[in-house]
Design goal:
Layout lengths: L3 E3 L3 H11 L5 H19 L5 E8 L2 E8 L3 E7 L6 H7 L4 E2 L2 E5 L6 E6 L9 E5 L2 E2 L3 H13 L3 E5 L2 E2 L1 H10 L5 E3 L1 E2 L2 E2 L5 E2 L5 H6 L2
Bound molecules: 1-O-pyrophosphono-5-O-phosphono-alpha-D-ribofuranose.
């Protein structure tokens, strides 16, 4: 089975189109990101493991199921933050572990500035959030950090990817499924996805 999942859901594609629009303001942009995150998270969690449990309804006993795994959500600062609220709406009990990375504008290599992971892993599965997968340097560095921490299972959840980023991430971490809303044409000479949506951090935060 391919590990690249590009959502075909009509609501995802509609919201993505409005998100891309240069006339979409910061407030609407954040709202759309939250909604997209919720929809993409729904698709990305379809294989979560469940255990059976009995529940008492007003009418008696029913056999139900509940999620079994301890889940960590890892937004990559800053742009990944925009996906956090939507994911937390679906997964309110997860742990949130922030990783701070920015791309050096000359080299496009990720520079780490925030990581407060404890010594021992506290989750069984991590959902890494970042809006854009451009060169994938940021995502690969985050996967490196999480694997060194000892997380057994990792997934990437983003909105737009460049083909170069998909290739790089799936080569560096072939075990990590990639859940996104679109794969665009290419990266330009300054490492931006074309046509993309511009700078996802700036468009969220008005900077
Ligand atoms: C952007 C974006 C991703 C990263 C993607 O972050 O939010 O994190 O670049 O690029 P890559 O796949 O080539 O690593 P940026 O460095 O602009 O920081 P910001 O999110 O704080 O704006």
């Amino acid at each position: 089975m391919s590990l690249i999942h590009v959502s075909q859901h009509p609501l995802v594609q509609h919201k993505l189109t409005v998100l891309r629009d240069v006339n979409t303001d910061h407030r609407k942009f954040r709202e759309l990101l939250r909604e997209l995150a919720l929809l993409l998270c729904y698709e990305a969690t379809e294989d979560l493991k469940l255990i059976t449990r009995t529940v008492i309804t007003p009418m008696g006993e029913a056999q139900g199921q509940e999620a079994q795994q301890t889940i960590g959500v890892v937004p990559i600062l800053r742009a990944g933050l925009g996906l956090l609220d939507g994911v937390l709406q679906l997964l309110p009990s997860v742990q949130v572990w922030h990783i701070g990375l920015y791309r050096d504008e000359q080299t496009l290599k990720p520079v780490q500035y925030y990581n407060r992971l404890p010594a021992v892993p506290t989750v069984e599965i991590c959902l890494v959030l970042d809006t854009m997968l451009a060169t994938a340097g940021s995502a690969i560095a985050t996967m490196d950090i999480l694997k060194a921490w000892g997380v057994p299972q990792i997934k990437f959840l983003g909105v737009i990817a460049a083909p170069e980023g998909i290739e790089a991430l799936s080569t560096a971490h072939p075990d990590v499924p990639i859940h996104i809303a679109a794969v665009d044409e290419r990266l330009n000479e300054i490492g931006f996805i074309v046509p993309g949506l511009g700078d996802a951090g700036d468009r969220q935060f008005g900077t």
